[in-house]
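Q: Fold this one first, please.
A: Sequence and structure below.
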Amino acid sequence: MSGAGPASLSRSGSAPPPSDRKREALGAGSPIQPIIKDVGEIYSRLLDHRPVIQGEIRYFVKEFEEKRGLRELRVLENLKNTIFETNEHVLPKCEQAMHDNLNEAFKRLQAANNMIHRLQEREHEERKLQADKLMAREEKRIAHWEEFMKEQQNKQAEVDEEHRKAMERLKEQYSEMEKELTKYVSF
């Protein structure tokens, strides 16, 4: 790494530039001079990326400007034409078709809604009729039950009356029998 540099030029006899003279004067004849030179080369190779970056920038500009040409402009123009055509022709057709279809769908929905409403009214009327029939049956059943209960009470009253009369007859019979028995016991 200690190839041709400021130190080797001064040894060969040619005059170094004025800025190199100060460096040479500071490090003239010292063993540090080749080390400084090597460090400078290492720095420029590893840490100084300006030459590489400048080359990449030149390559990018060349690719972008020369090879691509007007391709992006053509793509944008085609896109603009497509959008214009869509706005002028396709969008109105879509809007008209959508409007027609939505009107048709709305009419169908209204018809379906009316049919469902009529069905609900019929169902409501049927339920009301069934409820009325059920109520009439319930009232008839209640009336029949009340009649049955009155009849049962009347029968119970009759049975109680017959029982009471039978008890009185039996009492009279037993009292007569007792009287007769007392007649016979007294003998």
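Q: Good. Now the second chain.
A: Here it is, same layout.
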Amino acid sequence: MVRGRISRLLVRDVRFPTSLRGHGSDAMHTDPDYSAAYVVLETDVEDGLQGCGFTFTLGKGTEVVVCAVNALAHHVLHKDLRDIVGNFRGFYRQLTSDGQLRWEVLLLFASYQIGPEKGVVHLATAAILNAVWDLWAKQEGKPLWKLLVDMDPRTLLSCIDFRYITDALTEEDALEILQKGQVGKKEREEKMLTHGYPAYTTSCAWLGYPDDLLKQLCTAALKDGWTRFKVKVGADLQDDMRRCRLLREMIGPEKTLMMDANQCWDVPEAVEWMSKLAEFKPLWIEEPTSPDDILGHAAISKALVPLGIGVATGEQCHNRVIFKQLLQANALQFLQIDSCRLGSVNENLSVLLMAKKFGIPVCPHAGGVGLCELVQHLIIFDYISVSASLQNRMCEYVDHLHEHFKYPVHIKQASYMPPKDAGYSTEMKEESVKKHQYPDGEVWKKLLAAQENQAFSPTTS
């Protein structure tokens, strides 16, 4: 039962120094420190429940997202949770349509992408709304995926803002999809509880990993039953060919290989590069060019059809409008939602429904701190209530930083097993938050002191 008034919002800058070991490295992001603007909502109800949420960042700039969360806090504080979820569409629009923030903050932080419905303000919106969804699910005593699966279709649709997408998906279209999804829903839920949702691993082949580590991790993954692998490409063609050949030889011809360029190519370059990598039989090339270039993606997609290579993208798509245009332009064969880039569950629901209408499989992005924990709920819901299919579908998994979460993901036989704990699996361990808070946490005090000492140490000839 939904209850209580939001009495406190706390946001902290939490960063993990993953760049020290090359975790998460790719052609565009060579030294990422997986980070989060971590939000905790408290209520005036004496049940001890908190809503936890975050958005994913790569280190520098997290402080700007924290500022944006604080700037949006007045929309949440002292609001009754029942009123929020009772008019969730309206609350979502209130957060994303603040008349001053969506414009004036853009002038204050001109070097950052702020808004509207994209950039820093949208990341902050995701962090806050993720916390609201976590609190709602906890109060209902259900994991988020189950809260969504059990929700009446009309109630579910009342959480979605259809503004700007009705030329591709109307509310009536969405209702029809959800009503059709009621058929066989119980059986699909049982299948998920028994077998889980199929996953693929990115953890073996970050661009910054040396060959020995790649071989070691790939061998271990094969032993653990993984059959789908992704490799980072795009920095150097000859090195890409060598690494792809190494990985393909290790996994064999029958297992699935994907490639990810992380936006590093121009359109003609992407086509030329992938024509050289086609011999390794990739299922898709992910983010081959700028995430804003819908027509560029469409051109690449069309050019790669004879090679049997699909285009996957979505992790850097600002909002539902970009996804709408990608779908309308036939610019992708695999759609990748992100639980923190879009405006939380609300906006992701609209994208899942559009993907269903256009017949495009959803293969979520989860390469970042906590993203696996969150997106598993969305894709399990998608299978049970929306897509009703596992064909050409899988969810990314990276084996990093799960130990910092109170309810970490559970992988069994290379599949996500549905979470059983109430909430959105967003809650971090308080000890981890304190240690990794930037710049005053124990971990960062040591690292920053070491960097300062190194900077001022005398050089030797």
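Q: Anything worth noting on the second one?
A: The CA atoms of residues 68 and 105 lie 9 Å apart.
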